Amino acid sequence: YGTCALRSPELRTIVQQSLLHYHGLECDVGCFVVMPNHWHLLIRPHAGVSLEDLLRRIKGYSAWKINRTSARQGVFWGQESYDRLVRDASHLIAVMRYIVLNGRKAGLPSTEFTVWVNPDWEASGWTADAVIVDVLICLPPLYINDAGCNPRSPQELTWLVCGLLKSRNTFEAE
How would you class 59 by CB atoms within 10 Å of its CB: exposed for 0-12, middle for 13-18, buried for 19 or more? Predict the structure, then answer.
C-alpha cells in the first residue's frame, strides 16, 4: 500500500524524530512503530493540548521534511488518521503488544521498521520483549496519573486520552 517510502532508514528517522518532538512537552509517548508505509503511536496529550492539533503538526512537519529530503513535492500522508481510547491496563498491554509486534507480524526484516518504547516504561520492566513473550504477570504496575508516567507511584490509575494512531503515506512514485 503506497510507495513504502519509509523503508528508507533516513526517512523513517524523520518520522521517529517528529513523533518524539513533543514528548514531555505537550504529550507523553508510550511507544510507537514506524512501518514502511504507516505508523502506530501510543500517545497521551497533556491537559489543554488537542490530539488533532498534535497530529496535524507531527504529520505536517514530517511530510515537509521528507519531501525536502527526497527532493519531492506533494501530499505525503493520507488525510485521515484514527484513534481509540485506551480503557484500562489490559487494553494498554494489548495496544503495546500490537504496536511492538506490527513489523514482525507483517513479516518484515527488522531493518525495515523502527520500534520505540518509552525509556521510563522500559526501566520499570515494560519492555517490548516482556510484552512479546507474554510475561505480563511479571510486569510491575505502570501507574499513569495527571503528572504523566510514574511507574513507582502508588497512586490509583487515572486514564486520560491515549490514542492509537495510524497514517499511511500516499507519496506517489514518479
Answer: buried
Per-residue cell: 151: 511507574
CA-based radius of gyration for the chain: 16
Query: Please, which residues bridge with residue 114 across strands?
Result: 34
pLDDT digits (tens, 9 = 90+) for 27-51: 888 899 999 988 999 888 888 988 8
The C-alpha cell at 90 is 489490559
What predicted TM-score, i.e. pTM, was given to this entire model? 0.80
Burial of 70-91, coded b for 16+ CB within 10 Å and e otherwise, reads eeeeeebbeeebebeebeebee
Q: What DSSP assignment string belongs to the chain?
A: ----GGGSHHHHHHHHHHHHTTBTTTEEEEEEEE-SSEEEEEEEEPTT--HHHHHHHHHHHHHHHHHHHHT--S--B-S--------SHHHHHHHHHHHHHHHHHTT--GGG-EEEE-HHHHHTT--HHHHHTT-GGGSPP--EETTEE-TT--SPP-----EEEEEEB-PPP-
Would you list the DSSP string of 73-88? Answer: -S--B-S--------S
CB 99 within 8 A of CB 115: yes
